[in-house]
Amino acid sequence: MRTSFLAVAAAAASLFALAVADPVGAITRGGRLDGEDHPYVGLMVADDADGNPMWRCSGALISPTVYVTAGHCTFGAAGAELWFTSDLHNGEPGTPTAPEYNYPFEGEAHGTPIAHPEYVDEAFFLFDLGVVILDEPYELDEYATLPELGRVDEFTSGRNKGTSTVTAVGYGLQKIVGTAQGQGQDFVLDDKTRYAADLMVSNSKGVAGLGSIFKQIDGTGSFIVSGDAKHGGTCFGDSGGPMLADGNVIVGVNSFGLNGNCAGIGGVYRIDQPDDLDFINGFLLELS
Prior knowledge:
This protein has one domain: Thrombin, subunit H (Beta Barrel), CATH 2.40.10. It is 6% helix and 29% strand. It is built from two helices and 15 strands. The strands form three sheets. It has a six-stranded antiparallel β-barrel. A six-stranded antiparallel barrel has the order 2-3-4-7-6-5. A two-stranded antiparallel sheet has the order 9-10. Strand 14 and strand 15 form a beta hairpin. The radius of gyration is 17 Å and the shape is globular. The N terminus is likely disordered.
């Protein structure tokens, strides 16, 4: 299980806990079943060197072999299993996982996770970007695409007409009821199902409202999105999932939350910066 506190931050939902009722997930209530709207968004399970599952995240394919996710989803993992089926259940969402999907041990694709070269767990919010390079191509009719340099700078934010929105896509958790993580809260699940939600950009210029944590840091590379019961939000299992603008353009990856109940705003690591685009494009060039 990976958790950091910015209030359950670096796991803004990358939580595995197979031994504890599998409390992992994605878009909160207010979101919608994604179906086949974003077939390039997949569920990732990180493995240790012996092939044992450790935690899970979301992410998106930008080519048949390059899957973009968060740095805290890839750091410390030796391998990754990936599923792109929108619902891994045996029947309706929320029913037991169908055996044919081999979850969580053998995915529809397998790859090697690689974190941004400057990523460190202690300050995950600065370079929270990673990729999984697939062993074999996973062919789709459509993939996510990378943003233009500085795309997030064009966003408008705040509760006014014309506020920018992004679409969050990920797998699983709808709601948490109870106390802080690890202290007995009840998890309300619809896990292993892909959901989407259209979220308002509430602060495009950085990470606001985090007090002294960010006072000495100029430019965290993050932006803030809203979360509420009407429109949805992000939660455990959404880490690494794409924030999409202009259709299928990934402007950021889900990075952190501010409390253990997945309520309120969420933090997104923007990938429209020079070092991030260079990091990802390096793998596309190597594989071309």
